[in-house]
Design a protein that fits this description.
The chain has 245 residues and is of the alpha+beta class. It has three helices and 14 strands.
Length: 245
């Protein structure tokens, strides 16, 4: 598998890569649907999660094809990574995100930005709830961007002065069951891709947490496929991994 793991490629998909911890400054008034979505995905059980693991697999035709394997312990912010470098050689790293200053340049400039990007794909319904600095406006029912049907349109817009790509907007299309069914991403900066459309499908549950594992669409007109594999969670007090089914 060809790997373009350089910082530039990572940043191209670094959708709203803000801190994992909830923002506390500049909080916006949030519509009730934000919490409803988070609850549907299992936010009420998040404090029971000791660890989560998954493999993020992404491809934009003609641009890159890459996989990252992650294990994350939310309570300690410990991250373990497996992947390959630009020459196809195996790369592994284990670090604590609150101690990035002491890490290698590879961790600071490539691995951790990739973690943030991939984590937003896997857990965005939680980030939309946690990131209080982002505005959220329930705009009511709209036609889906592609295909038949309607859904509740909920744009999540990040401020213009934070994150790797400030000013990003995620337009979430939410079904009657409070699951995201589609989204449109608008980049706040000039780097490509400036617009991404993708499905949210392949729903599976690992323990109490719901995951969308299949995303297909387009990035600036190029075919996009992102899928999340090998998803599992470990609950506090247990050594057993609960696989997504």
């Amino acid at each position: 598998m060809k790997n373009l793991g350089r910082l530039e490629i990572t940043r191209r998909l670094a959708f709203s890569m803000l801190l994992i911890l909830p923002a506390t400054l500049g909080a916006q008034t949030r519509p009730p649907i934000v919490e409803k979505i988070a609850k549907t995905y299992g936010i009420d059980s998040w404090d029971k999660i000791e660890a989560i693991r998954y493999t993020w697999n992404g491809e934009i035709t003609g641009l890159f094809k890459i996989s990252h394997k992650w294990e994350w312990e939310p309570k300690t912010n410990k991250v373990s990574y497996e992947g390959v470098d630009k020459d196809g050689k195996p790369v592994t790293a284990t670090y604590v995100r609150t101690d990035l200053g002491s890490q290698s340049d590879a961790v600071k400039n490539q691995i951790d930005p990739s973690f943030m990007n991939d984590n937003y794909w896997v857990l965005f319904p939680f980030h939309a709830y946690w990131d209080k600095s982002a505005s959220a406006i329930d705009q009511g029912k709209f036609n889906l961007p592609v295909g038949p049907g309607m859904a509740e349109l909920l744009p999540i817009k990040y401020p213009a002065d934070g994150g790797y790509t400030p000013g990003d907007t995620w337009d979430l299309y939410v079904g009657n069951d409070n699951r995201v069914v589609y989204f449109v991403y608008h980049r706040g900066g000039a780097r490509p891709p400036s617009r991404v459309l993708a499905t949210w499908a392949g729903y599976k549950k690992a323990g109490p947490i719901l995951f969308s594992t299949e995303h297909r669409g387009f990035a600036d007109g190029k075919p996009l496929h992102i899928f999340i594999s090998d998803v599992a969670v470990k609950l506090t007090g247990s050594d057993t991994w609960m696989k997504a089914e």
